Amino acid sequence: MRPFLLLLAGFGCVAAPAVAQTVVLPSAQTASTIAREKAVKDAIAEAALVNKMTAINGANDGDVLGFDTRARKVRGTPFLFPGWAMGDAQLSTSAKPMAGVFKFDAYNQQLRALRSQGDSIILTPEKLQGFTLRPTGSDGKPMERHFELLPSSLVPDVPVAYAEDLSMGKELRLLKFQRKTVFSEKPDPAYSSGAPTDAYQTATQYYLRWADGTYVPVKGNKASILATIAQRQATAVTAEAQDKSKARTDAEVGALVQRIDARLAAK
Fold first, then answer.
1. Cα–Cα distance for residue pair 253/65, rounded to 1 Å
2. Which helix (H) or strand (E) holds 203?
3. Containing domain of residue 116, as a range?
4. Could you say which DSSP state residue 151 is in?
């Protein structure tokens, strides 16, 4: 017997057939499509956290700047890392870092935040004190890269500059400032297609930052770093000076400063 629903009509009751619900089970191909779409939506959902930054960053007062997304006729990329990366932005208006999806423009020294709408915004230096990026390394695992805002007068002709913290110390830190610039290459006579001859190049400067806020430029090698530290803390570098091993890579010089910082912190 078919089920009926009783509908009140005035003083009487009118019988009406119930509407049965049909459930369609997805096929294997449809399920795969749904899974892919969910993965994309999940990635965008993580970027939705950046929407909070829009309000904090002043979307209606001119603090959020637009940018031209058209491809430039320059060989290379202005970004420090080629793709978007998960990370955290430390804003002056919040004690807690804000999570999101970011790209660092090393040419303009600007951090771009991906929004859930698919576009991106630039976080202005008035609000952005530092940030952490987690790009994927050559081993397929995320790398933790920390950046801090440098004093406006530290780098000549660069009013806004962010440097990577290679040692994360308490008393002493080693910072690496990288800025991309554009230079013109010599035209290649083998080509006459009018292809661009400009390219990005990266300029690098290392700094030692003491806990009192003093910044001292150094070269990214063991000898320069030890000689500079010895001017203020000679005993702290004695053990490292006796060690004849080389420190050439960022990881090696960063570890060197970490060891010295540990000795300074233990005093």
1. 36
2. strand 198-210
3. 48-149
4. P
3-state secondary structure of 84: coil
74 part of a folded domain: yes
Q: In the predicted model, what is the mean pLDDT of residues 195-215?
A: 90
35 occurs within a structural domain: no
CA distance 83 to 143: 13
Q: What is the largest CA-CA distance in the chain?
A: 103
10 vs 38, higher pLDDT: 38
Instruction: Work out the pLDDT band at 46, boundaries 50, 70, 90.
Output: low
Are both 133 and 174 inside the same structural domain?
no
Number of other residues whose CB lies within 10 A of the CB of residue 144: 10
59 lies in some domain: yes
The angle, 0 to 180 degrees and rounded to 10, between the axes of the packed helices 250-266 and 222-230 is: 20
Q: How many CB atoms lie within 10 A of CB 173?
A: 23
Q: What's the predicted TM-score (pTM) here? A: 0.72
- Say yes or no: 56 and 106 in one domain: yes
Give one DSSP letter per residue of 106-140, joined into a string.
TTTTEEEEE-TTS-EEEEPTTTEEEEEEE-B-TTS
**173, 142: one domain:** no
